[in-house]
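Lab notebook, bench 4. Still working through the backlog of constructs that have no structural model yet. Next entry is a single chain of 239 residues. Request: give me the structure tokens for it.
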Amino acid sequence: MVTVTREFAERIAAMADLLLSDDDADAPLSQLADFALELVPGSAAAGVVVAGEHAWTYATSDSSISGLHRSQLESGTGPVAEALRFGEARRVDDTRQEDRWPEVCSAMTAEGLLSCLILPLRTDREPGGAIALYGTEPGSFTGAGHDVALLFAAQGGVAMRNASLYRNCRRMVDNLHLALESRAVIEQAKGILVAEYGYPPDVAFKRLSVLSQNTNRKVKDIAADLVAGRIQRRQFSAE
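Model written out:
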């Protein structure tokens, strides 16, 4: 029986902010796996698989889990592979008696993992990945444990969706900063050529572009060298 306390609810809610980091791509996912061990009754090991063109296990609480997942993702068979392919949960209550994936279940049994629950982590309508929970006893994820795991997976999907939005916004902002910096240095370089040779601004930019084409370098890099005095100004003369 799981008692839902205020602290428990707050821990579940806190997952929404887990993945909002660019410092280490694996660290927040490892935190997600750690949260699973802490919050889902019966969990002895956990792994997070991120969906994509080539799905892979990004974080696990146990090194043996990576091997279990790798074999499934490479063969396309097993509860993890199916959860990602169909966006549906997969559960094994006793790996010693399960006949759907005999090789996978045999490997889990050899690791002392007798039950598992694989739940999609949904981002909008598509699974953004899956959380794989493993127990050392048969039937580890039935009853209240199963219900908590469903709640955990739902909130984990929110965390992944927030992470995707956050990183996309960060990328847009970074690209905008680069664009503004490039424009600023180009304008400075144009100003130098206008003052040096009396070119109109459009002609000054054309002179930068010509040297860019002739040297196979970006205009912003040519402009930066001109502003920093690393390039001779006579190269921009029309003579």
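Notes after review: The mean pLDDT is 78. The longest strand covers residues 126-135. Flag for follow-up if needed.
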